[in-house]
Write a structure and sequence with these properties.
The complex is a heterodimer of chains A (about 350) and B (about 270).
Chain A lengths: L9 E9 L5 E10 L4 E5 L6 H9 L9 E4 L2 E2 L10 E4 L11 H11 L4 H14 L15 H14 L4 E5 L7 H18 L2 E6 L2 H7 L2 E6 L2 E6 L1 H6 L4 H6 L4 E8 L2 E4 L2 E4 L8 E6 L4 E4 L6 E10 L4 E6 L6 E5 L10 E6 L5 E3 L4
Parallel strand pairs in A: 3-8, 3-9, 6-7, 7-8
Antiparallel strand pairs in A: 1-2, 1-4, 4-5, 9-10, 11-12, 11-14, 12-13, 14-20, 15-19, 16-17, 16-19, 17-18
Chain B lengths: L2 H31 L7 H8 L1 H34 L5 H9 L6 H12 L4 H10 L9 H26 L2 H9 L4 H30 L2 H6 L6 H11 L3 H33 L1
Helix pairs in contact in B: 1-12, 2-3, 3-7, 3-9, 5-7, 7-9, 8-9, 9-12, 11-12
The chains are: A alpha+beta (about 350), B mainly alpha (about 270).
Chain lengths: ~350, ~270
């Protein structure tokens, strides 16, 4: 592919953002993004992820002391129009007074590229993003998914060093979002552009990210690969924000949690009298009553299709979520045993 | 009563009022216009008779210039006022829209205070160059008056349109490499086109028919509404003044229709 290998390495250094009214949107943060990497900024609304994206784009200036570097070159003072970044907005921000083809070719036209070359490039992107046949449509004649593709094609048409996506799938309905997520993933891999992707959707982050930066209240909570984030969350916030998690707080005795439904080995010796641990629902196995390390009673069973979600009380101080295979026969009120492998239990730092 | 006849009964009062106060007087006006000594040719006189034609051309030029300059001033001011917050902003907006309530006579009076024989401009230029500049009674004075009259009517529409602009559009254009000028040319002005057409039409029609300002200022120049007034009250020439009135309405409508179809594609595209 002719577009491959255009990525630039990005470094942001001590970039914080305080707005004119005194609100602190982002604590000073330092972050390295490798050439060609897809980095996802993940967090709830107001966590500072969009602010960080806008600082990298050049739409916001970091507080004094902060620097943005592309391939080692300081671009902090460079305006967005000269940073050569492609950007996709949540609203798509397509130009309503231009056709689809004119939208995609706009950045090339601004760069003074000749008509024939522009047309060839637009045709290439139209094919790449699966919107053949729509070239002469007006924007208001497109569906949401088509708009999303046009916005993406327009952003990559200029062969940007860095592609910035601000919640590009949020405005779409769930089924379309899933389909486009897969498509987007293939496209990003094929293009090989350094990509920074902002989302509040952890499924999107897992599928698209080489690395995920989980953010909370203007600060970075954890940086890691999707597996690290999922299996080794640093704290309770990350554990609960990414995927479903059972958080258990209980006294510790000889390397075991002392719970109402039994004792649970946590694998390591705790130095404190109380411990907070996390287990994922799918790591808990349902066994015969009496077997397993914990005993409990099923509160409810929700059949989801590929699995069933049980809520089990009596095992821990709070009800546990358990994802059981969709084949076992259980019903509310059943007494069951639960078995959890020690390596599936993650010790978290206590909050206070 | 069926749904359909119910609707007709509801529409009846509107039909009566429209006929009595709008259609009948208009029809009468058209008829009176043709009742002069030249009959229907009285209408032709608007275009043929040199004095009428000159007045017509003056009026159209003046109204067109007023519209263009008003749109330019109001767009720049409206965009700035909508996008920036600064001390005194509310006062400035209030001052700009204050003349909305002024009758044309007051506007004319203010132009005399500014550029009349005893006006500010005359005083200043008299002291600086030894020669008094008096604009108030010429086409320039009238132009200034019309401008003052139109800007408040246009600026509020523009400000509302600017407020509805998606800032993301400008940011997207910038990310694609567009300079501030290119962003205005390719994104902002096309998006404001519907507001330009709507408020420009009001400015143009107001300027075509403005009477109060013209009555106060137009001593060295004639505009159509003044001509109608003099024909009507001084010469008691009912046929001519009726023909001129119909002509004024028709020409204004025609120019607005042309402007609308000309900008129609842009407006439709801006959706």
């Amino acid at each position: 592919m002719s577009t491959a290998g255009h990525g630039a390495a990005v470094r942001i250094e001590a970039c914080g953002k305080t707005f004119a009214d005194g609100t602190r949107a982002l604590d000073p943060a330092t972050l390295d993004i490798a050439r060609g990497e897809t980095l996802v900024l993940l967090g709830p609304s107001g966590c500072g992820k969009t602010t960080m994206l806008r600082i990298i784009a050049g739409l916001e200036l970091p507080d004094p002391g902060g620097r943005v570097l592309f391939d080692g070159k300081d671009v902090t003072a460079v305006a967005i129009e000269r940073r050569n970044v492609g950007m996709v907005f949540q609203s798509y921000a397509l130009f309503p007074n231009m056709t689809v083809a004119d939208n995609i070719g706009y950045g090339l036209k601004i760069r003074g590229i000749a008509r024939e070359e522009r047309a060839a490039r637009v045709a290439e992107l139209v094919a790449l993003t699966n919107i053949t046949g729509l070239e002469n449509r007006r924007i208001d004649q497109l569906s949401g998914g088509q708009r999303q593709r046009v916005a993406l094609a327009r952003a990559v048409a200029i062969r940007p060093g860095i592609l910035l996506l601000d919640e590009p799938l949020t405005a779409l309905d769930a089924a379309l979002r899933d389909r486009l997520r897969g498509e987007l993933n293939r496209l990003l891999r094929a293009l090989g552009i350094t990509t920074i992707y902002v989302t509040h959707d952890q499924a999107e982050a897992m599928e698209l990210g080489d690395r995920i930066v989980v953010m909370r209240k203007g600060a970075i909570a954890q940086i890691g690969t999707p597996r690290e984030i999922y299996f080794e969350p640093k704290d309770r916030f990350v554990a609960e924000f990414v995927g479903a998690a059972n958080i258990i707080e209980a006294p510790v005795d000889k390397g075991e949690l002392v719970l109402p439904g039994g004792r649970l080995s946590i694998g390591v010796e705790s130095t404190t009298a109380n411990a907070t641990v996390m287990t994922r629902p799918e790591t808990i196995r349902v066994v015969e009553p009496g077997a397993g390390s914990l005993a409990g009673i099923i509160d409810s069973v929700s059949f989801i299709g590929d699995r069933q979600r049980l809520v089990v009380s009596g095992a821990s101080s709070k009800p546990l979520n358990v994802d059981a295979p969709n084949t076992i026969q259980v019903k509310a009120g059943d007494r069951i045993g639960l078995s959890i492998a020690p390596e599936a239990i993650r010790l978290l730092p206590s909050e206070d | 009563m069926s749904q359909k006849s119910f609707v007709w009964v509801c529409l009846l009062p509107l039909a009566v009022v429209t006929t009595a106060f709008f259609l009948l007087p208009m029809a009468r006006l058209v008829v009176v216009g043709a009742e002069g000594e030249h009959g229907l040719a009285g209408y032709l006189a608007i275009l043929v008779e040199p004095r009428y034609r000159a007045t017509l051309i003056n009026t159209v030029i003046l109204a067109a210039a007023t519209t263009v300059v008003t749109l330019m001033v109001a767009t720049i001011a409206g965009m700035f006022l909508q996008r920036h917050r600064f001390p005194g902003r509310a006062v400035l907006i209030a001052m700009l829209t204050f003349p909305l309530a002024f009758p044309g006579v007051v506007v004319g009076f203010m132009i005399i205070l500014l550029a009349g024989r005893q006006g500010l401009l005359g005083d200043l230029s008299g002291r600086l160059f030894g020669e008094k500049i008096v604009l108030a009674y010429s086409i320039y004075g009238l132009f200034l008056g019309y401008l003052y009259f139109s800007i408040p009517r246009v600026i509020l529409t523009i400000m509302a349109a600017v407020q509805k602009l998606d800032v993301g559009l400008e940011e997207a254009a910038r990310s694609l490499g567009a300079s501030p000028w290119a962003v205005q040319r390719d994104v902002v002005l096309p998006a404001l086109a519907p507001a330009f057409v709507a408020s420009g039409a009001i400015a143009f029609a107001t300027a075509m028919g403005a009477f109060g300002t013209a009555f106060t200022l137009a001593t060295n120049i004639d505009v159509l509404p003044m001509l109608i007034y003099t024909e009507f009250t001084l010469s008691a020439n009912f046929a001519t003044s009726a023909a001129l009135s119909v002509g004024l309405g028709l020409i204004t409508w025609l120019i607005l229709a042309l402007a609308r179809s000309f900008s129609g594609s842009a407006v439709a595209a801006a959706g």
